[in-house]
Amino acid sequence: MNGPTPHEIPLAYREFEAFVAGAAGRLLHVAMLLTAEPDGESAAARQLLAGALARTFADWPRLRGDDPYDHTRQELCAAFARTAWRHHRGRGGPLSRLRPQQRLVIVLLVYEGVAEAQAAAQLGLPVERLRALRGRAIAALRARERGAAA
Q1: DSSP 62
Q2: Half-sphere exposure of 97 (CA within 13 A, CB side)
Q3: Count of other CB atoms within 10 angstroms of residue 96
Q4: pTM (2 d.p.)
């Protein structure tokens, strides 16, 4: 397996650094929505994001032509799915009343605007199941909103 030549490493590092500088804030927000942590309490989200960025950096030479943001978001969501049991109870973030799988679906479909078919494939779910999860999550969020307004 041929890796990058020594003169390509600094360029790859600079490209990755520029990507992180531009995308880290949005990716951290995605991670915070997933972990249901409120602003200022993002330890779990930062840990998830660090792992996703490390995996993206390791894959960087193979990402030529692919969108590194999509790749990192997929890594982030996969890491969250593997550790969702740790995030079962939200800590006060906007999606804290949702179950982890519902949070994942809402973040992908609503916040990130990922197409249903793509999100379903990424999560390994039939599109119908994805739609049902989205419907339940939206109903739970609306019930929370009605409860807060009362």
Answers
A1: G
A2: 13
A3: 17
A4: 0.84
